[in-house]
From TrEMBL:
Pfam families per UniProt: ETF
CDD domains: ETF_beta
A GO molecular function held by the record: electron transfer activity
Name of the protein: Electron transfer flavoprotein beta subunit
Record keywords, A-Z: Electron transport, Transport
Stretches assigned to the Electron transfer flavoprotein alpha/beta-subunit N-terminal domain: 24-213
Amino acid sequence: MDILVCVKRVPDTAENEIEVNSDGSDIERDDVVYSVNEWDNYAVEEAIQIRDNVGGSVTVVSVGDEESEEVLRREMAMGADNGILVDDEVFENTDGKGIATALKAVIQAGSYDLIMTGALADGGAGQIGGMVAAMLDLPYASLVNKIEVGDGSLKVGREIEGGNQEMNEISLPCVVSIQTGINEPRYVGIRGIRKVASVEIPVKSAADLGLSADDAAAKVTRQTYFVPELGEGAEILEGSTEEQIEKLIEILKSKGGIK
């Protein structure tokens, strides 16, 4: 099975104190530490496990600048076979549709049985997987936390309301977005990183993919970035249990919660 996994280089929230810049147009990116998007890392691990079980190959692709090559090499050190970088200034300020358009072109230029994305990235929109599937007219399953490979299809699990699990069968080729917790991503050591350090990663421009600046142009633009104002702090009830209950009832009455 030939699998393509879409990955993104994002700010590492475990290593950074994220702040909004002075004009509210973006986060402050000076001295920010970047890493692979967490959800994407789970997707790559799942792809590697599928390949190891049934054969085939795993290719990772990223739309970004030259620094995104670091993320691709990390995932190749993890076990992916190939990497593709889409690097063109026309994608610099694009939106989800622009990114999905670039990924669609990469997919159409290859031959893949399964396309995987992380369920979310740093923007939190969770839209790339669905957009790519729609553009390619492929079946799509979101928030997948279990995959069983069948003959020409996958059985995919999703957590639904109440902590329940549902299983669906989806025909190949297809697109799935992966939820965290589907597996335990393997550790990437220095030896693995050195092993892929000199591997050539092809870089594709918009023109290479048959795309124009209009194809990559953002249809949705961010207007502002801000941190919501904090509300009033919690009120700590003191006294005995009976006194706390009485105070709570008084507060609920004053707020109209009970009569």
